[in-house]
Amino acid sequence: MQTKTTDSRQYAAGRRPAATTGAEGNRIRLLAFWFTTTVILFELIAGSAWDLLTIDWIEAQLDHLGYPDYFAYILGVCHIAAAVTIAVPGFPMIKEWAYAGIFFMWSGAVVSHLALGDGPVSWGPPLMFLAFAVASWALRPADRRLQRIRLRRDRSTDADQGRTGRPETRPRAWAVSIGLIVALSAVSLLTLPAAEDITGEWAVERGWVDEQRP
Fold first, then answer.
1. Which of 1, 19, 60, 183 could form a disulfide with 203 if both were Cys (CB 3.0 to 4.6 A apart)?
2. pLDDT tens across 114-163, in order?
3. Exposed, middle or buried by CB within 10 Å (0-12, 13-18, 19+), for 174?
């Protein structure tokens, strides 16, 4: 009897049920997913505004890398399309393509700068966003994975449906995703003048242009 009481106290003081520990791990994973995803969404949305409005920084960078000017418009459209696809619920197959697209885009930017002998100040930022994109993809919830969707199609019992649920189809998930896109778009547009001044100075410092345009 004494042994059972001691074991119970030790269990209560030093151990937690596996279900509780697993739930905490899932919450941490979900927070990490949305943090990394928010970072890449902001970069994609801000980059889209910079590209489509073709600020001086974009023109200088494209000229430095040897890409045509119209490439900015292609990137701008792809940026906003990838951001919306990754943010909203559902569309798991298109999400895979969006992640693949931004992976090649940022890895291509890194290689382009390295090929020209640019320093870490140039290839470091795209490498950082590439790492965030990989982390976002790896941490994405089960409902955003293709494998999870296939498993759901094979489960027909009510118990399975209640256990897995379809959180990505709820109106709240859509509202949060759309609200996030709108908020990030507003921030990127409001900070555009300041960003244009700062990046213009960067272009001069790196020798991509002779002097910042008025």
1. 60
2. 999 999 999 999 999 999 999 999 999 988 888 744 545 555 434 444 44
3. middle
The number of CA neighbours under 13 Å toward the Cβ of 79 is 21
Domain-wise residue ranges, the chain: 29-145+159-205
**58/178 Cα distance (integer angstroms):** 27
Encode pLDDT of 38-67 as tens digits: 999 999 999 999 999 999 999 999 999 999
Residue whose pair of structure tokens reads 């399975």 in the numeric block: 160
pTM of the predicted model as reported, rounded to 2 decimal places: 0.80
Cα separation values, 93 from 4, 99, 106, 146, 196, Å: 53, 10, 21, 7, 35
Amino acid (1-letter code) at residue 55: I
